[in-house]
Task: structure prediction
Amino acid sequence: MSFEFDVDDPLLAKAAELRAAFHRDAVDRDKQGGRPVEQIRLLKESGLPSAQIAKAYGGQGAPWLTILRIVREFAKTDGSLAHLFGYHHLPLNLILFRGSNPQKDRWLSGSAAGNWIWSNSGNAMSKTSTGEKTKGGWTINGSRPFSSGSHIADYIQISWENSSGERLTAAVPADHQGIVIADDWDGIGQRQTGSGTVHFRDLHIDDDEVISAPSVPLTPYASLTSLLQQSVLLNVFVGSAQGILEEGRDYTVTSSRPWIYSGVERHIDDPWIKRQYGELYIRTLAAAELADKAARSLDDAYAQGPSLSHADRGAAAIDIATANLYAGEVGLAVSSEVFEVMGARSATQANGFDRFWRNVRTHTLHNPAEYKKRTVGAFLLTGEFPVPAIYR
Result:
């Protein structure tokens, strides 16, 4: 059994090398939480943070299929690093979608040259930071939760509400005076994502750091950011299922003991164990195929640029919603059911197999499957695509 990619892609080869390095202490780092400083250093040295940036800005112009397969590769051992790498692309592409030409030249070219890591502190569900307009800029106070990656970022996308309740967004260096990173994330999973609180204390933002304006209409192309988010998460789910299945298989072959009433001398000769692993493998393969199909749909939509139509954007949204749904269900099922075939001795802190379930469970709660199913069902019944919005 193998989930290796059978393509000659140097970026995926580099990701596989990094995955092996990340794996060496993945269990211990999951227990510790905090900042994966050494792993981020290796990631930046690899050049992968600039892989998706267009060649016109000095990047490598990699397609989303490759980027999302890298997310999946990292998630086979470390869901936190997979999440951080994937979410790094959200603010980068927000600049591409809605930024001015000088902003694109400044931030995309700078990011490509320096392999900067980006994060966000702009959770749209929490209106907990406000801005006061000043001469030449804004003064921001308050905080934002779920600020994934803020603890290891070079640049942070931040958001706030103005006096009219409109949401504004800017990009600032992570070490900017007035930014205080709380490091208070205490989730049961994704323990090294730094998805806690960022405080803004008289943070000054220059006007040329503000990305677009609330009055600028949201086009189908600019709305792809929400599909990027869902694409990252679904590949974390698939990679987690692949990772626990590989680790579970190895444990079962080398360490599991047959049940006393099974009638076999080796655990792997038990028909129950064979059937269960076969089922888990098939479901995981299916989730990976749907994930690749969704990534190709995203690439097709992305390639159309600002001319992207509502219908083509909608078709990609349905493919991504479908893949996201199935990936979440498979990730949860595989990371839980595999314990039944590994046996009681597998459920220890030392083995760390539980990290896969905890990582998937943490993120699936952020995007309830019930509403994704309704979106897909509504399309099937009426042919109507979802209206672009958060999580859609």
User: Anything to note?
Assistant: The radius of gyration is 22 Å. The mean pLDDT is 95. Strands lie at 118-121, 129-134, 137-144, 155-161, 167-173, 179-181, 198-206. The first helix runs from residue 10 to 23.
